[in-house]
Amino acid sequence: MRAVKTPTMTAGSLRRSFLVTASCAMALAPAPGAQGAAESTTPPGEVRVYVGTYTSGESKGIYRLRLDLASGALVAEGEPTTAVSPSWVILDGDRRFLYAVNETGDGPSDPAGGVSAFAVDDKSGALTFLDRQPSGGPAPCHLAIDRTGRHLLVANYWGGSVSVFPIGRDGKLGAASAVVQHTGGTREPGRDPGPHAHAVELTADNRFALVADLGRDEVMVYRFDAARGALTPHDPPALAMEKGAGPRHLAFHPDGRHLFVINELDSTVSVLTYDPGKGTLAAIQKVSTLPAGFEGKNSTAEVVVTADGRFLYGSNRGHDSIAVFAIDPSTRKLTAIGHQPTLGKTPRNFALDPTGRYLLAANQGSDSIVVFRVDGESGKLSPVGSPFRVPRPVSLAMLRLTR
User: Fold this and answer.
1) What is the pLDDT of residue 30?
2) What is the Cα 335 distance to its own chain's centre?
3) Per the domain annotation, does 1 fall within a domain?
4) Of 9, 154, 306, 317, which residue is 20 to 30 A from 175 by alpha carbon distance?
């Protein structure tokens, strides 16, 4: 692993619609049809960008940047917030709190994983540490907040487990209300043994939590009790993916009835149908994230769907690119459009800014964030400016600021 979202809107989800988060860096012409970008002129204002990193090198923790929506330029904003390997960061719906995993624990024998809470200063965006809870297993790697905003869900990679934490009114985390331990998983030579929970996502109605388990080659389905913060295996409890696929991250189509799964180990994206009434999944397509003829080593990382549901993006580590797909408006199946080099090495998480005009890619292997302009008509990407240096970037969480 270290080589490493919906039609029903509650009050909390309406607030969250202002954010682009994210289980993974500049002149701009308007792009009609881009995600959230119907304006005929470039919108004023800026976007604050929080960058989660690994701190085994020179990184200090969580970095804070600003993206100028008029120029596409990135600048640093304040000093980084000290934290231990906050590799995945997420903002709450009210933009008052930020949560980060502490991805520690080198394997099943080391239980030292954590999740930390921070208060966000409304004006400066500076972070103040609130508290930390043990994550329920080593190497926590992905977070999700449920639709009520009252629970934080954590996927623990090496632990092969999923935990739920209550969120207090003050943003602090309570002790885990649920820890579900996966069992089994691969024992194939060359692969990390055991289960590996890699991402967790909530359905639009908040009834189910879906978990990509790379070690089991399954997407697990849990009934989620928002009143108690509890997880219960559904019937059926999982959808089996192809052996050796290694499901990593998940992204819902805006219709809430289709799910896209990026598979780390065989460099593919699977298209699934989702039945909201039954809580069941079924596979309808699987496509490669790589160009024909590519023979080098590769693994995938992140998958993102535009808010208008027209395009899908996935990151390749090895080919070092963003794969671009068109989504069929009827079937939701994918057609490859092309590949945009990320101008760096080992792209992990990437994210669309809240206006959908820019895509920011975190190149872990080359210590950089690169900004790309999104063409809303074609879905294609084009780089803006030069790579912005951030040590060992992994994930991005963004919120829009207005003047």
Assistant:
1) 31
2) 22
3) no
4) 9
